[in-house]
Amino acid sequence: MSETIAPPRPRRLRRSPAKPAARARPRVLDLLALGLLVIVVICAIFAPLLAGHSPTGGNILNQFEPPGGSHLLGTDENGNDILARLLYGARPSLLGPLAVVALALLVGVPLALVAVWRGGLTDILVGRVLDIAFAFPSVLIASILVLVSGGAGLVPAIIAVAISYIPWAARVTRTAALQERRKPYIVACEIQGMSAFAVSVRHLLPNLSRLIIAQSTIALGYALVDLAALSFIGLGVRPPTPDWGQMVSDTAGFPQGNYTAPVAAAICIVLVVGSIAYLGSRIAERETNA
Hints:
Elements: H1 20-45, H2 47-51, H3 82-118, H4 120-133, H5 138-149, H6 154-181, H7 184-191, H8 196-232, H9 244-248, H10 260-289
Helix pairs in contact: 1-3, 1-10, 3-4, 3-6, 3-8, 4-6, 5-6, 5-8, 6-8, 8-10
């Protein structure tokens, strides 16, 4: 009589517990990035109290002073305190991207929702226009718009960059809204007789808000760079108004070997943009895993 041999039981794979260091590392980076942004915002708000000098009231006789003494970072070609210009320059450098993203969302999100709800030819036309707009760099579009408007400054630069960011806002919203549009809860709302506006405001937008916030955080960094680029080429904030992008383009001190102003402004841009991009990617990662 032959004995039946039972097949071996499959071994359960034990999940290796996450290492405490691996879990703590992202949290530390999150705190560092968030802390840096908080410090920059505080410096921008309380610039008059922290600067100690006027950003535009320098003495030409004190130009290109080395760091130290009453001028911690020295002075520029006009005798202005570089640290004061960095602190005051944080204001347009931070408010500008916020205004750009807000204006782009204000136009792009409704445009995408209208295209999704109407569908058909409207959605096709909107999709093709967005594809064409994405073929051109945002800085190029913004530069053309500023030149056509015939004026330079922070407000024209913000409006120009915001217009160039509308395709981004519309495309992000349209892609996500197309997926939500087919879900049962949207169909149930339509069957109940709710209008497209009511469904969008009460249900669709709240469900898309986390994605929009995550993508908007990443777009803030790009907007900061684009506004700085416009100031760098003379189409954004004009001197003597302090702005990080304009300070990077300041090469008057190069023959004298004074690189403090452009290097300090460039470091500020890199740190802020890096912190914003990192936090934005972390928010998007949590949205994906949710």
